[in-house]
Design goal:
Layout: E1 6-16, H1 26-31, E2 46-47, E3 51-55, E4 60-65, E5 68-74, H2 85-95, E6 101-113, H3 121-129, E7 146-152, E8 157-168, E9 174-185, H4 193-204, H5 207-221, H6 242-245
Antiparallel strand pairs: 1-5, 1-6, 2-3, 3-4, 4-5, 6-9, 7-8, 8-9
């Protein structure tokens, strides 16, 4: 039995034609009001000629590269009203207006752990999603699978990657899982900068409906109806409570 799918991470990636990443510092984000002044850093910021990264204790991280800005947040078990990066991304593009913004993508990652007494994620992948064949029997270890599906929706294309995963629990036990990674891609056709910013802002606001779309797709088309709650740490690799692993 597969446990119910839950979105773990929301990532908003905004493409730019070219920028200087070094302008994005923790002080810049705070003093311009892009992030609240009382947010505390999870670790020292990273700043190089080609990238800058600021990570906060509440699970929000911001990365600036030469050709994009990435806003990420761990959202498992959070209420919609508590998710921050949609508003942060809005404030950023309205503050840093000298950059030539090109487009925006909404990216989501989530896990569906397997009950350890049942099939593994690998068995699910090969028995449910792929047709058995001689192609599986090659090499010195069992072949691994990674699947990409492309769905055309009303206003967007949804790229869905499905991978096998192993979860490491604090008590050192492991559990098989399916990792679903989704990208919602929408075209930005406006040429005038103000109109383009408005269009990008409208896409940012769709993150909530994108989460619901992904949950509906995965839970209704791939998984069983059983529902379990899982938790993640906010600034470190995925960690799960001991109780969940039992």
């Amino acid at each position: 039995m597969i446990e119910n799918f839950q979105v773990q991470e929301l990532l908003i990636a905004i493409a730019v034609k070219q920028q200087n990443p070094s302008i994005m510092t923790a002080d810049f984000l705070k003093y311009t009001g892009i992030v609240p002044s009382d947010w505390e850093l999870a670790r020292p910021p990273v700043l190089t000629n080609t990238a800058a990264q600021v990570v906060y204790q509440n699970g929000v991280s911001i990365v600036a590269e030469v050709n994009r800005v990435i806003f990420a947040e761990a959202i498992a078990n959070k209420e919609v009203s508590d998710v921050q990066i949609g508003a942060i991304a809005h404030k950023y593009i309205q503050t840093v207006k000298q950059v030539n913004y090109q487009g925006v993508g909404i990216n989501l990652r989530g896990l569906a752990p397997y009950d350890k007494t049942n099939l593994s994620a690998r068995n699910y992948t090969f028995s449910k999603l792929l047709q058995a064949g001689a192609w599986q029997d090659f090499g010195s270890v069992p072949v691994e699978a990674s699947i990409r599906l492309v769905y055309t929706l009303d206003e967007t294309q949804l790229y869905l990657d499905i991978n096998e995963a192993q979860l490491q629990y604090p008590d050192q036990t492991t559990k098989s899982a399916l990792l679903f990674s989704a990208n919602f891609s929408r075209a930005i056709n406006q040429e005038e900068p103000t109109a383009r910013l408005a269009a990008i802002g409208a896409v940012i606001d769709k993150w909530q409906s994108d989460v619901e779309t992904l949950k509906e797709l995965v839970n209704s088309k791939f998984l069983d109806d059983q529902s379990y709650s899982i938790s993640v740490a906010t600034t470190e690799p995925l960690q799960f409570p001991t109780a969940i692993a039992k």
